[in-house]
């Protein structure tokens, strides 16, 4: 009797898009980060989100084209391996684990702090953050333990709720005409080409983190050659346009002349003040609750992505084989999920024991290297695309296989520089702490290179099959021309 596997043909385009958009946590990003973007970049801040969206859409062209030829469940590291070789691919695998775990585990601090803030704002009670974060770990474990379609349904409901409250805010502002009438000054070059735009771009790129995880669900997707690219483009387009639209409407709520002052005075309360004035206090109360559910949705989406990375690396022989077990009923990578929850609990409890602040330290310090790690993976994947396609005959166009990936690589390199240069915006830490946080990314990558050469020497069979195509191939998803393996 064969071992159970992930449930194939389960996820449609909308399901995968829900996972990706939920990971980005639109409500949390808007209410928590957009005021800082306005404060730093002025009324031209919405354009920063559009520029980030365009850059990632260009990246998605080559990335999704390559997805038709790479059927491995390893997502980023499989793509990088095919283009840049196994040593870089193995290093990328470790970097992916740092990136996705960093983006998820830090958010347990945000869950604790936002829940505490919500309880205080709505009911005037003070609750400690640690029990909330630990309860969140249990909820996310259960969500990941259940089948992938269960997770998709949960995320669909939560995503509709959190985007709905932002649409309600925008509608209230536009119907009322804003503070000084509706203005398009945000899109004028004079308000976009200002020194603060670099900082806005750094905030904007961070708001898209995790959008590329569509390919992680390839093995569970229906007709993955179509659903994965569609979900990727939908996620990028939705996030870019929606972020820009919401930020622009909030600027209208306060007026071009006053919004920067309002954001500087009370960044955390900017969205709540706007929705209270234009919709009502009941909507502000609802927004408080939906921020908590937005954080939970982001945690579940990242948790599912991490589980599938762990499963893939266990199947490769890089991680312990036990992590590759799939639940016979729910068809979920439940052992990898449990291991990830244990890791999260250790880190959360460690920060609490050290007396750390759940937001300023657990969230920001753990998220920062995670975000930089995922951005570096995007850059490596963009570089890998043209190198992959030059190795064999294929029917893909030159724009998709060369021009778009090269342009994306240049733009992503600029984005990484901007984020690194403004890393204090994300970490809120001292120069020493920032140096440590940024240095974690190259340190993990170099550790991965060392692991690759050790595997090649001590476990050549594991090294040789790393990121290999599944065998036998699935006729429904096989590429038109055979892809060569790298050495």
UniProtKB/TrEMBL annotation:
Q: Where is this region: Disordered?
A: 466-487
| Keyword Membrane found | yes
**Gene3D superfamilies in UniProt:** Amino acid/polyamine transporter I
The record lists the membrane-crossing segments as: 16-40, 46-64, 76-100, 120-142, 154-175, 187-211, 232-255, 275-302, 334-356, 362-389, 401-420, 432-453
Instruction: Pinpoint the Amino acid permease/ SLC12A domain residues.
Output: 17-459
Q: Which UniProt keywords apply?
A: Membrane, Transmembrane, Transmembrane helix
How does it sit in the bilayer?
Multi-pass membrane protein
Q: Which domain of life is it from?
A: Bacteria
Indicate whether Cell membrane appears among the record's keywords: no
Compositional bias per record (Low complexity), positions renumbered to this chain: 477-487
The listed locations are: Membrane
Entries under InterPro entries matching the protein: AA-permease/SLC12A_dom (IPR004841), APC_superfamily (IPR050367)
Protein name listed in UniProt? APC family permease
């Amino acid at each position: 009797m064969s071992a159970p596997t992930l449930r194939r043909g389960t996820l449609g385009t909308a399901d995968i898009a829900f996972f990706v958009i939920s990971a980005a946590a639109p409500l949390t990003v808007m209410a928590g980060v957009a005021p800082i973007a306005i404060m730093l970049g002025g009324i031209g801040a919405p354009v920063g989100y559009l520029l980030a969206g365009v850059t990632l859409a260009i990246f998605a062209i080559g990335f999704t084209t390559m997805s038709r030829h790479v059927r491995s469940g390893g997502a980023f590291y499989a793509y990088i391996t095919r283009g840049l070789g196994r040593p870089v691919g193995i290093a990328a695998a470790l970097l992916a684990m740092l990136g996705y775990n960093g983006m998820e585990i830090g958010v347990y601090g945000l869950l604790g702090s936002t829940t505490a803030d919500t309880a205080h704002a709505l009911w005037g009670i003070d609750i400690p953050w640690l029990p909330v974060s630990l309860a969140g770990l249990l909820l996310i474990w259960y969500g990941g333990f259940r089948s992938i379609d269960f997770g998709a349904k949960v995320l669909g409901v939560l995503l509709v709720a959190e985007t709905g409250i932002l649409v309600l805010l925008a509608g209230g502002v536009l119907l009322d005409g804003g503070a000084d009438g509706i203005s398009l000054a945000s899109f004028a070059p004079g308000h976009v080409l200002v020194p603060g735009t670099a900082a806005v771009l750094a905030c904007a790129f961070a708001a898209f983190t995790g959008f590329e995880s569509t390919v992680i669900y390839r093995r569970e997707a229906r007709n993955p050659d179509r659903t994965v690219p569609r979900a990727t483009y939908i996620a990028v387009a939705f996030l870019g346009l929606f972020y820009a639209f919401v930020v622009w409407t909030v600027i209208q709520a306060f007026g071009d002349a006053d919004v920067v002052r309002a954001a500087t005075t009370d960044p955390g309360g900017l969205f709540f003040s706007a929705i209270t004035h234009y919709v009502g206090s009941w909507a502000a109360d609802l927004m408080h609750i939906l921020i908590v559910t937005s954080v939970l949705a982001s945690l579940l989406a990242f948790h599912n992505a991490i589980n599938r990375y762990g499963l893939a690396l266990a199947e490769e022989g890089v991680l312990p084989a036990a992590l590759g077990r799939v639940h016979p009923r729910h068809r979920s990578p439940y052992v990898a999920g449990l291991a990830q929850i244990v890791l999260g609990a250790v880190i959360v409890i460690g920060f609490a024991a050290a007396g750390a602040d759940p937001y300023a330290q657990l969230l920001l310090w753990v998220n920062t290297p995670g975000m930089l790690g995922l951005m570096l993976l995007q850059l490596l994947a963009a570089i890998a695309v043209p190198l992959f396609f030059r190795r064999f005959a294929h029917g893909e166009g030159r724009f998709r296989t060369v021009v778009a990936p090269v342009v994306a690589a240049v733009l992503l390199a600029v984005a990484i520089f901007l984020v690194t240069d403004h890393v204090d915006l994300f970490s809120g830490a001292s120069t020493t702490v920032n140096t440590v946080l940024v240095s974690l990314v190259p340190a993990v990558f170099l550790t991965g290179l060392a692991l690759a050469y050790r595997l090649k020497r001590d476990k050549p069979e594991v090294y040789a099959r790393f990121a290999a195509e599944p065998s036998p191939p699935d006729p429904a998803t096989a590429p038109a021309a055979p892809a060569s393996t790298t050495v």
